[in-house]
Every structure is written in structure tokens, then in C-alpha cells.
Design a protein that fits this description.
Blueprint (H helix, E strand, L loop, with lengths): L4 H10 L6 E6 L5 E6 L18 E7 L5 E2 L5 H31 L8
Helix pairs in contact: 1-2
């Protein structure tokens, strides 16, 4: 399967700029809310409305009302993956382009490898 690096790069460029961070917040009932945010976690577990919802990119756990709650309970790991992907996917695209360039320079077809 050939990766469409242009499409991946376009999606990365169109997304909210990074870095992204995992935030541990509370909803209006002081239940856990795990989110991905454009601002770092303060460690204070702010309760809604004491945090700016406009800074949130995604949520992996919203308990009240129960909007987001994955069955495997991997809220923290999923949030960490999403936040990491914002910085890592563009780096991986660059690395694949670099390696393909090296293969081409060596006279090899990068699509055949």
C-alpha cells in the first residue's frame, strides 16, 4: 500500500496547530473529563466552566453528560496518542520523503521497496 503523503501532509497542515497536550479536567458535576488541548495541563483539574472550551481539540472521556466514554477505559492513553500524533505524523511524513529521496538517489524505485 502506497501512502499518499500529500494527503497526509494536507490534513496535518489543515488541523489546529500544535503542540497539543493532554488535560485532566472536571465537568460541571466534578466528574473526570480527559481532553486534548492546545494548552498544557495545569495539574489543578479545573472544573467547567473554569477552563476555556475553545482550547480543547478532542475528548476521550466526558462523563456528565456521558458523551464520550470508550468501553476499554483507555481515556488517558488515547488522549496521549492523539496529542503525540499532532507532532509525530508530520515528522514521519518528512522522514518517509527523506528515505524515498535516498532510495531514488541510489537508483532504486522507492515504490518497489
Amino acid at each position: 500500500m502506497k501512502l499518499d503523503l500529500d494527503e497526509i501532509e494536507a490534513l496535518c497542515s489543515a488541523a489546529t496547530p500544535g503542540p497539543w497536550y493532554v488535560r485532566h479536567l472536571d465537568d460541571d458535576q466534578a466528574m473526570n473529563l480527559v481532553a486534548v488541548s492546545t494548552t498544557e495541563d495545569t495539574g489543578r483539574g479545573e472544573r467547567w466552566p473554569e477552563f476555556d472550551h475553545a482550547e480543547l481539540i478532542a475528548a476521550t472521556l466526558v462523563q456528565h453528560p456521558r458523551y464520550v466514554d470508550c468501553a476499554d477505559e483507555r481515556w488517558d492513553v488515547n488522549a496521549a496518542f492523539i496529542a503525540m500524533a499532532r507532532e509525530t505524523v508530520p515528522q514521519l511524513v518528512s522522514e518517509v520523503r527523506r528515505l524515498r529521496g535516498m532510495l531514488s538517489a541510489a537508483g532504486l524505485n522507492p515504490d518497489a521497496v
